[in-house]
């Protein structure tokens, strides 16, 4: 459980998220993910990274329960810094990062996927930012890399989801496959990239980032500043607690 990585002989590094049941990452998980991806890119034998996940969905974002049970703002600050580190690690990784997404990809999951080089998704995959319902702001930077501007705004304001098929239509998801074929599809693409001259691919990644019109690091941290403002007013804490209480109520009804 946690973040793990495995290497193949042809230079493919698979990084796996595994925080059951829904891959809601605690603060330490975001930092661990950032370090693992960064180290993968720094490995001279690495040619491409596949970012995947176990469990029901790719990522449910930040562990809000951890935030609510931790006094003060330490957990919030750690989660925000951890997310920034992890999203940045995907974007800055020295080799291409392929995100293999199944089921739900929410909140911080969108931050990871939006900064990936290529996205492959299962037919049941869907993406969304429930941030406004959780008293937080962030990752509009990354959602804007997946959908057009006005659609991003509508999805953000309503906390609505968008399907893998819709993102494929917009060109941000490269392939949509059956869930049981997801890992194979990601590995197939990774193998194609791994065949290329790694020196050329690494410079290609650097060059593409260099001409990117969006400054993902600064725009995301700008968004996060408003999350801190919402915390100072108490609005964020009320929204998070309502979410946690709602989860507890649903679990009680299911038992």
TrEMBL record:
InterPro entries, alphabetically? ClpP/crotonase-like_dom_sf, Enoyl-CoA_hydra/iso
Alphabetical UniProt keywords: Lipid metabolism, Lyase
| Gene Ontology MF terms | lyase activity
> Which GO BP terms sit in this record?
fatty acid beta-oxidation
Top-level taxon in the UniProt lineage: Bacteria
Which SUPFAM superfamilies does the UniProt entry name for this protein?
Answer: ClpP/crotonase (SSF52096)
**Keyword Lyase, does the record have it?**
yes
State the similarity comment.
Answer: Belongs to the enoyl-CoA hydratase/isomerase family.
Kindly provide the name given to this protein in its UniProt entry: Enoyl-CoA hydratase
User: Where does this protein come from, organism-wise?
Assistant: Lentzea guizhouensis
